[in-house]
Write a structure and sequence with these properties.
The protein is of the alpha/beta class. It has a domain of about 120 residues: Trna Endonuclease, Chain: A, domain 1 (3-Layer(aba) Sandwich). It is about 55% helix and about 25% strand. The protein has three helices and six strands, in the order αβββαβαββ. The N terminus is likely disordered.
Length: about 200
């Protein structure tokens, strides 16, 4: 009977060895699959980053296109609303690191009494309007530090402006510039426009 027990024990070891070999093979295959998944994930991440970069560039190009379409006629359109701006500039950067004031302005219209700061987006949303309020505050602070006492007004321009965004912008005292046929219209805020 002891002989029989030894034989069964050796057979048991062979079974365990076979199970261990099978487990090792499965672990190797799992490791290979995980490496392949990691490689594919890395490639997917790279493609997502590249697509995001390309979409960002496209969005910027739409914004530039709107600026170039709107700016030439903007002075005339605001003249219809009673503003006589004598100077127009695109893409102005304000960098005052000493006073922690940094802002990018898409279009600036100005005269001796007033300055209109126009934010241009292809499809502005409420968050863009909120950011424009912050921009206006920075621009006002920068102007005050330089002794500029003119009144600053704001406008939001876009190719597609949803009703809720337009309503919010107007409630904040901004003018809204949007396409209408082959040209564009400017909607004035209800009551007096907000001045900074």
């Amino acid at each position: 009977m002891e002989t029989s027990g030894v034989y069964e024990g050796e057979s048991g070891f062979e079974d365990i060895r076979a199970i261990l070999r099978d487990t090792a093979k499965r672990q190797e295959e799992t490791a290979r699959r995980q490496e392949e998944i990691a490689r594919r994930q890395e490639e997917t991440d790279r493609l997502v980053r590249e697509n995001s970069r390309q979409i960002g560039k496209l969005g910027n190009r739409f914004g530039e296109m709107i600026e170039y379409m709107v700016k030439p006629n903007l002075v005339g359109k605001f003249r219809e609303l009673g503003f006589v701006f004598t100077k127009a500039a695109s893409e102005t950067d304000i960098k005052d690191e000493k006073n922690n004031i940094v802002a990018e302005v898409d279009i600036t219209l100005e005269n001796g009494e007033k300055v209109m700061i126009v934010e241009v987006k292809s499809k502005p949303v409420i968050e863009d309007v909120k950011e424009h309020i912050e921009r206006m505050e920075k621009v006002r602070r920068y102007a005050s530090l330089r002794g500029d006492r003119r009144k600053y007004l704001g406008a939001v321009a876009g190719m597609v402006i949803k009703a809720n965004t337009q309503k919010f912008a107007l409630e904040q005292g901004f003018y809204v510039v949007e396409p209408s046929g082959e040209t564009f219209i400017i909607t004035a805020p209800k009551g007096s426009p907000r001045e900074w």
